[in-house]
Sequence to fold (450 residues):
Amino acid sequence: MFKQIILSASLFIAAIVTVQAQCTGFHTIRECTPPDISDFKRFGQSRSRMVEAKKTFTYQVVLFGGYDYKIGICTEKGYYPVQFRIINAEDNSVFYDNANDDYVETVGFTVEKTKNVLFEITVLASKKEFKDATDSRVCAGVAIYWRKVPKTGF
Amino acid sequence: MKQYRFYFVVLAMLFAAMFYSCSGGKTNQADVNTELSEDTLVQDQMEIMLPTPSEVLSIVLTSGIKYSDSYMAPLGIEKKAVMVKHKALILGVYFADFAYTNYYNQRNASSEYFKALQELTRDLGIGSILNDAYFKRFDANLNNPDSLDAIFEDFSQNAYNTILESGNRELLSMIGIGAAIEVLQIGINSIENAANPDEAIATVIDQSAVFDNYYNNFIAYNSSKPEFKSLTEDVTEIFKFFKEKLSSAGNESVVTDSKEHFTITGGDTTKLSKADLAQLRNMVANARKKLIDLKY
Fold:
């Protein structure tokens, strides 16, 4: 009986860990990788997680000044488009909203001074009809790449 | 029959586990109130990301700054730390020191800090983030600095993400604040031997944005804990110092350079005076001393 309890408990924990980890590394998939990043490095604040479609997930990151960034946004097939906004954490003004850009999934930008910003991700899934609540849960990824702004001039 | 009943119980537990995990356990994060225009959209919660010590140090250690082993915490504290909170805080401190030794390719020192990290992560039950495979990769690439950088970066990101995704956010908040104080301490001390002190001081200002994330993440999990009263007071003092001294000019603007690229310009902040810097140095030194003396 003791063995059975141990086995059951192990399976229970394993199941929790396995299912929760199913979005781990989602941002490293090809669909999430922006183009032309040969001289860029992956940024540590890239993120994958399970989100609920039509709900906004926000996370605060630090963007370092003097760096170029490229960002790729991705989710699972059938759940596009994804709205992505970059917001100034100081005053909530919007730096970028891909809704103004036909919900493109990649964008590049340069930051002059280090700052805290909010990344807002909303999986819109505009063509999807959900059968139930679990159907609306989906992996989303934000892949960030960075490089020092190359020196220009002679 | 008994066997079938057992398997039935196991299956039932598996389904229960899957249902629980799919329902998305909430984390301890601050609510935000942003609303989108569409009625059906609902605001979720906010998560605070922590830049890795190696990323922060790559910003802080501007050109011309020399390596000094006096900036790092002494080894051996890991053996004195008994309480989980002390182990986590020292893990953060050593994580930053390990990043520092790697930045300057100090392989012997790096190897010692790696062993201390291994011991602490094992004690904290997160030993999988620092397995021997990484160290073998380090060893195999000793003569190739570019590969070493890439391996170390991979390790740093993997370590933070693994702790985060394994649900140990509270633990990461403690590790993070230890690392934040140590990185700040290295940054401030490095100014004294910088080739361009003005540039070095500017990077300390950059660190205020990093500290903001680490501080808010720590506070979200620990502000009400009596055992962290003293640490909370000390890091709050540093946080308030940054807020008071480094007011933003609020002159940010977005310049669209092409269809797929823009630049966020402006964002100037006031500069720190020598007196300000001395005050910050004292506050950080005080917190750092209590950290490594296990006084928190």
In short: Chain B has one domain: 53-292. Strands of chain B lie at 42-48, 253-258, 261-265. Residues 13-43 of chain B have pLDDT under 50 and may be disordered. The two ends of chain B are 56 Å apart (CA to CA).
